[in-house]
Fold this sequence. Notes:
This protein is an alpha/beta fold. The protein folds into 2 domains: 2-48 and 275-366, Aspartate Aminotransferase, domain 1; 51-272, Type I PLP-dependent aspartate aminotransferase-like (Major domain) (Aspartate Aminotransferase, domain 2, 3-Layer(aba) Sandwich). Helices cover 40% and strands 15% of the residues. The strands form 3 sheets. It has a 7-stranded mixed β-sheet, with helices on both faces. The longest helix is centred in the last third of the chain and has 25 residues, at 274-298. Bound molecules: pyridoxal-5'-phosphate (PLP).
Amino acid sequence: MPNRSVNLARPEIFNLKPYIPGKPIEEVKRELGLTDVIKMASNENPLGASPLAEKAVREAINLLHIYPDSNCYYLRQKLAEKYGVAENMILLGNGSDEILRLIAETFLRPGDEVVLARPTFVEYEFTALVMGAQCVAVPLKEDRHDLPAMLEAINGATRIVYLCNPNNPTGTYVNKSELDRWVASLPDDVILVIDEAYGEYATKEDYPDGLSYVREGRNVIVLKTFSKIYGLAALRIGYGLCRAELAALVQRVSEPFNVNLLAQVAATAALDDNEHVQRSRDNNAEGMQYLTRALDELGLPWIPSQANFLLIDTGRDCRSVFEKLLSKGVIVRTGDVYGYPRHIRVTVGRPQDNARLVRELIGILKEPV
Ligand SMILES: Cc1ncc(COP(=O)(O)O)c(C=O)c1O
């Protein structure tokens, strides 16, 4: 009988690779007999959530029996004020992951094409494949988006182009003058999704503000998240900014209660916590400086990053480095899944986490390859 149930599924889903989740930290500790394990693998905020957000969650804990506000009224108001946009230009979702899915559901038919970089954030391809679209993946050039080649890949079948800025997993960015020129040359009938999940960490003066293209009236959707600098990954909340007409289309496929109550109150409070954001940004900049100097001393190349993670060339098989770090209680991401078989992707941690990673890398480098 198993064959019959397989035949029931849409053919598109057989193009999807099932997500392989990592083990919970508690399980890693138990298996390895370790008490102190640090996760530098998922680009979370090592300083934790905004204290104002935690307080807001505690205060809302007696409201768990009530459905959340389906329009995210207060959060929407606050975001509109922060960016100086109309409230109907804001999309809210169960993480920006969900908004990516809503965008795909709104705009993609089987056979349509999307253009994206390779490697980049995996959800673009995943959500497009779910809808039966074809993914045209343009390899990075010197670890950066190859904008001319991406432009060339666009044809009459292209509906969405994805730009992850800074890019996950490389941390590289497209600067303002490059992006201005590129956006101006895109055809009017494609939607450009600019994913700025790590935008708050960027320190370069010429890091572009994707919202400026929305303000020009272009078919651009800028995605942002509360999972990274605001430290609210567990609550699942992200948002998008785009023209009201586009937002109204995407809104049609959204579930009425897609953003839970705790996420709404936490995000609303976190937007007021400038101190937490600044501390997180400073911790990242200092950690990045410490790590890159230490890696230079070790002779390990790294890719300049504007995000909260670093792709490091270990000069050896990344899986063995991963296993060795794991056995010492340091969890990182292997680069092989992104086409970088010698690299590990490391989230910048607290000073003590970064120092521990460097210590363990020194030990690993002393071992024969
Ligand atoms: C580039 C990028 N976009 C979006 C997301 C998803 O963020 P969220 O937690 O808001 O779904 C991630 C998460 O790692 C990411 O790296």
